[in-house]
Amino acid sequence: MKIKQLSIFLQNRMGSLSKPLEVLSNANVNIRAMCMADTSEFGILRLVVDNPEKGKEALEESGFLVKITEIIGVEMNDTPGGLTNVLNIIKDNEIDLEYLYAFTHEKEGKAILLLHSDDIDRLISVLKDSDITVVQSNEVYNL
User: Fold this and answer.
1) Between these two residues, 43 and 126, which has the higher pLDDT value?
2) What is the rounded CA–CA span in Å between residue 95 and residue 111?
3) Which CATH architecture group holds 71-141?
4) How far apart are CA 129 and CA 124, in angstroms?
5) In Å, what is the CA distance from 85 to each residue of 18, 61, 136?
6) Please, what CATH class does the domain formed by 3-70 belong to?
């Protein structure tokens, strides 16, 4: 149920994003979703890939600082208000989100929202109790 996400720390300078993506490509690791956050000094590239352990190993062998973080994915309606519905449930249960990102996929009318919180287990429980579908990790890895 929990999805393993790679967090890669990069210097914030031109071209720094291409090298880790090239490493993953050469290792035959496919990216399923990605998010980039940056400051003036450094960036954090967050990736969901089809093989997190292989991706982490390839990146570390190339000198990157990589951390595996557990996140969850939930299915939401790909319509106006779909995201708001999920976020209101989280807010009403006073769960603090650290970050999120979303993407659409082949299921018509649905999108997947990736979430990270310091209390993932409680987040899963609250969402399931509210009839929100928590997607299995293999479903995301195999998109």
Assistant:
1) 126
2) 21
3) 2-Layer Sandwich (3.30)
4) 9
5) 35, 42, 20
6) alpha beta
